[in-house]
Amino acid sequence: MKRAIVAATLFLSVCTALDAYVLFDDPWPDGAIVMQLQLGSGGPLIDGSASWNAAAESALASWNSHIGRVRFLAVRDSTAPIGDNNHYNNVFFSGSLYGHSLGASTLALTTNWYRVSTGRRNEADVIFNNAFSWNSYGGTLRQRPDGGTLADLHRVALHEFGHVLGLNHPNEYGQSVAAIMNSSVSNLDTLQSDDVTGAAALYGTSDEAFPGAPDDNCASPRERDPSCRHRRPAE
Amino acid sequence: MRRCMFAALAALSLSSGARATTVVAPTFETLVAQADSIVESEVVDTRARIVPQRDGAPIVTDVYFRIEKVLKGAPASTMILQFLGGQVGDVGFRVDGVPSFSTGDRDVLFAITAAPLVSPIVGMMHGRVRITADAATRQDIVRVFDGTPLRDVRVLGSNANARPQRDQPAMTLSAFESAVASEVARQAAKRP
């Protein structure tokens, strides 16, 4: 605890240099980032989410409330083909990727494809490791009755969707800051100031105009995007 | 200032121990147990290539290592590990969290060579322990993957109650070698 107080004091003393976010240099072009939610049912979950997809969609909405020139668009219960470099942003459970196991320690990972010449990314997939026990809950991290990790899909999704946007791990660059984007966290389950500032550095804040219809981009000129055909009509 | 207060409170909340969001950080014992090869190595080359497969054509990067010392596993003088991700021509493919290597990098690697993995390092990036020369003593010391000096192997993974004092010096490479050797021997003795 003494160390924590020292760390807190240190934070207060360096108030002018708290931004620690780390960005990849290949952001998305302005517009919608269509995420194909393919996690399936599984609810109700501890936090009341009706399904895995609902928990993931909530995480997307958290990011959307802070970013400007791009916006996540969730395709619920998508049937889009799952594969890499196919221009669909798949979100799904699996234990492997291209025949490569995720390993015994990896909860989830994000892949992304980008063009070097344009410096723009064009696809990102998020894979949650089905070797783990998952639920969706807030607050303190929980253990399974047998002592293993009960993985929280919502907070891991927040982290992975941050990667989708183009945020890296600040703590891997020798920085100490509270961030959902740190590769190591404990009980943080919401976006932190550094996460939001990092996303705003890439895409502006939510105050900025989004280049598309504000409510439903699949009903906008972007409806020609083949990804939109998988979206359910609004209920 | 409000952000600072927030960060300070977050620092307090983090003090109870850390765990990876994407990776469950392995303890030292787990690193040793899961690795089928533990080596001191230096990167001599990296080559990215496209690997056509049934479900796509991912880019992988082969990293070529010169082995300086084997701490666990079969003796070898070189090793090639394949990591998912890389850049070929105008196309880049990245798997967040997979470590990247540059020629000349020196590391103690806790590697899994028996099966193809997204990252053949135990715990994605956690099984990469960096070797650097201490500016003051000129001795080789070890750092964890994020560059923080490793002061005690008990700090690795989720053994949060065993945090060493901040004034404890960074572990030397030779001390780390001894710790690995002891743990390898301990685990070997436990096997039936």
Give a written overview of the molecule:
- The complex is a heterodimer of chains A (235) and B (192).
- By secondary structure, chain A is α/β, with parallel strands linked by helices.
- Chain A is 21% helix and 22% strand.
- Chain A is built from four helices and eleven strands; from the N terminus they run H-E-H-E-E-E-E-E-E-E-E-E-H-E-H.
- Chain A has helices at 2-13, 52-64, 153-165, 193-203; strands at residues 31-37, 70-75, 89-94, 96-97, 100-101, 108-115, 120-129, 133-135, 142-143, 149-152, 184-185.
- In chain A, strands 2-1-3-7-6 form a five-stranded mixed beta sheet, covered by helices on one side. In chain A, strands 8-10-9 form a three-stranded mixed beta sheet. In chain A, strands 4-5 form a two-stranded antiparallel sheet.
- In chain A, helix 2 (52-64) packs across helix 3 (153-165).
- The radius of gyration of chain A is 18 Å and the shape is globular.
- With 192 residues, chain B is of the alpha+beta class.
- A six-stranded antiparallel beta sheet of chain B has the order 4-3-2-7-8-9. A two-stranded antiparallel sheet of chain B has the order 5-6.
- In chain B, a hairpin with a 5-residue loop joins strand 3 (59-72) and strand 4 (78-84).
- The radius of gyration of chain B is 18 Å and the shape is globular.
- The model of chain B is unreliable at 1-21 (pLDDT under 50).
- The chains are: A alpha/beta (235), B alpha+beta (192).
- Chains A and B meet through helix 1, strand 5, strand 6, helix 3 and strand 11 of A and helix 1, strand 1 and strand 6 of B.
